[in-house]
Amino acid sequence: MATDTLTGPTIMGTATRTRVFKNFIDGEWVESSTGETFEDRNPADTRDVVGIFQKSGKPDVDAAIDAAKRAFAKWRLVPAPKRAEIVYRAGEMLMERKEEYSRDMTREMGKIIKETRGDVQEAIDTAYYMAGEGRRMFGPTTPSELPNKFAMAVRQPLGVCAMITPWNFPMAIPSWKLLPAIVCGNTCVIKPAQDTPLSTFNLVRTLSDAGVPKGVINIVSGFGSRIGAPLMEHPEVRAISLTGSTDVGRIVGTTAAKSFKHCSLELGGKNPMIVLDDANLDLAIDGGLWGGFGTTGQRCTATSRIIVQKGIYSEFVERYVERAKALKVGNGLDETVEMGPAVNEAQLKTDLDYVQIGQSEGAKMKCGGHRLDKGDYQYGWFLEPTVFIDVDPKMRIAQEEIFGPVVSIIPCDSLESAIEIANNIEYGLSSALYTKDVNKAFTAMRDLHAGITYINAPTIGAEVHLPFGGVKATGNGHREGGFGAIDFYTEWKSIYVDYSDKLQKAQIDRVD
Ligand code: UN1
Questions:
Q1: Closest CA to 368 of 384, 355, 382, 392
Q2: What separation in Å is there between the alpha carbon of 207 and the centre of ligand 1?
Q3: What are the pLDDT digits (tens) for 96-143?
């Protein structure tokens, strides 16, 4: 049994039934060794308990890694196209379950239903793409320098991989990690974010239903403070993939380095969108609203800085603020709602702290800044869409990742000064430019120092078959998505076959 149910509190006259989720280890749903659990609550209505999950400890992590290690012995020998077929089937099953899983995700994470459908779709896209990679996984064959000798390089799986995933894309991001890992022949232990474990459970359940053998993917739920270190430090873990904050990334990277584990870090962003005088203003305003307030600003790729050229600055600000004020905030299950709550109380507090910081730094707050707590809002973590204008690029609100619906608008003189402002920051994930001038577009494509640049589109909306990741404090040089993921989850073995029937010494027995 994957779940049991408990009768929960009564909300609006209806008794709720709360599902209890166990860890998934070696193909079995098991309780944690600690006997402790935690609640996954709906951030739009905290009376609603979405599920009860295991608060695991080190013995659970060890059991999951043991299971993954045992499973690796067989899984690595399953032909990659066969492994990929299972992933393809999981993609088809996710398509059938898309609506149910999207609703679960809106309930646990808060983002609006259109966006959670997009999140599940991103996992489906990843499944189809990675299924194709199972029939590629190309490596070079190349001539040998010696006669009657054959040379090639093949990709080999790493072994047990550990994944630590965030709450903002609770199915898409686990899929970016798990699917390439298993197509390449690795086995996995995943620790989903404690705010949103259900979506990862839904993904893993589907993979299991599609035929992923026991032990190949294991889930251990709980808190990073307790199970993060045992997962990262375990000698059997050969790779760690983290999407999270830059501070956590520093700890994970340092820990991984001590035992030479492969380590992929996808960290913070403070993504600039430049709007030049010649831009299509309607388009730029639509893009800036979607990039700034989509997912309640809780994307690593969120458009958190809008750098606007002086000729159109006042008009842009006026129209942007008008539209931001009009955004409908509420429970994301209502199809008409445009922005959901913060994911939890701590995130709301961070957002409100930055509202204070921005004001004390002297930026002008043109709208928002208040918690919404009347009527139905009182049960959730809602903040008004907030816009600061005349922001100085050195202010903390223009430099630090907020991860909430707080946008800073910064005036600039020219493309060159805008690029300088855009780059003068510790992060480098996404970036965008609005212009009709092709020369300026190509200059920005070359000079914006970021892992992603959009022209005439906001900073969000990466597609799964292109590399995803950033420069500077955004990561450590790896990319998710595309074949970069295949690179991360494999290592090269060079193979030489000498069919000359005699000893041939490379570099010494030269054919002159
Ligand atoms: C993230 O913000 O952590 O490009 C991931 C995007 C999404 C993925 C975002 N496809 O905005």
A1: 384
A2: 22
A3: 999 999 999 999 999 999 999 999 999 999 999 999 999 999 999 999
Which of 300, 338, 401, 480 is flagged as catalytic? 300
Q: How would residue 17 be classed by pLDDT, with cut points 50, 70 and 90?
A: confident
CA of 146 to the centre of ligand 1 (A): 48
CB of 74 within 8 A of CB of 172? no
Contact 267, 299 (CB under 8 A): no
Atom of ligand 1 minimally distant from the CA of 243: 3
pLDDT 10s digits, 404-459: 999 999 999 999 999 999 999 999 999 999 999 999 999 999 999 999 999 999 99
SS3 label, residue 228: helix
Nearest CA to ligand 1 atom 3: 300
In this structure, the residues whose C-beta lies within 6 A of any atom of ligand 1 are 122, 168-169, 299-301, 460-462
- Give the pTM: 0.96
Mutation pick for ligand 1 pocket among 299, 304, 468 (CB with most ligand atoms within 8 Å): 299
**CATH fold label, 272-455:** Aldehyde Dehydrogenase; Chain A, domain 2 (3.40.309)
**Phi (first) and psi of residue 408, to 5 degrees:** -105, 125
Number of other residues whose CB lies within 10 A of the CB of residue 79 = 11
Query: Which CATH number is 58-137+148-267+475-493's, of 3.40.605.10, 3.40.1190.20, 3.30.420.40, 3.30.70.1340?
Result: 3.40.605.10
Look at residues 198, 185, 140 and name the one whose alpha carbon lies nearest to residue 158: 185
Instruction: Measure the N-to-C terminal CA separation of the chain; round to a whole number of Å.
Output: 70
- Token reading at 407: 């946008």
Q: Where are the domains of the chain?
A: 58-137+148-267+475-493, 272-455
Dihedral sign (CA 207, 102, 402, 297): positive
Q: Is 91 in a helix, a strand, or coil?
A: helix
Report CA(176)–ligand 1 centroid distance (Å): 11
Q: Are strands 452-455 and 430-434 parallel, antiparallel or unpaired?
A: parallel
* The predicted structure's pLDDT at residue 1: 42
Q: Is 184 a catalytic residue?
A: no
Active site residue 300: yes
Query: What's the gap in Å between 360 CA and the centre of ligand 1?
Result: 31
In whole angstroms, give the CA distance from residue 137 to residue 140.
10
- Could you give the CA distance from residue 86 to residue 79 in angstroms, rounded to a whole number? 11
